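Sample entry (91 residues):
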Amino acid sequence: MRYIVLVLAIFAWMPAEALEPASSVKVESTYSFGIAKYKLDQKTKVTGWRVAKGWYFGRQRGADSGLSLVWQHKQDQLSFSKNGIRLTHRF
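Predicted structure, serialized as tokens:
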């Protein structure tokens, strides 16, 4: 339930330009209901939705697998999951 409230809050404050495609993130494949598989970096993939510019919600595969809300900007990544909050900086 907390995830649903968090996603709805992000949608409420999302600017219109947030849904423009990001140049550094690759969309590997798309599915129905707006679900897509995003390759955020070399070690992280998210299958779910892009909810705002740099924000992704869905099943994360990588260092912190599971249902997550992920923020990705260049080498920095912030993940909110059932296991907690994870901050990653890639060199």
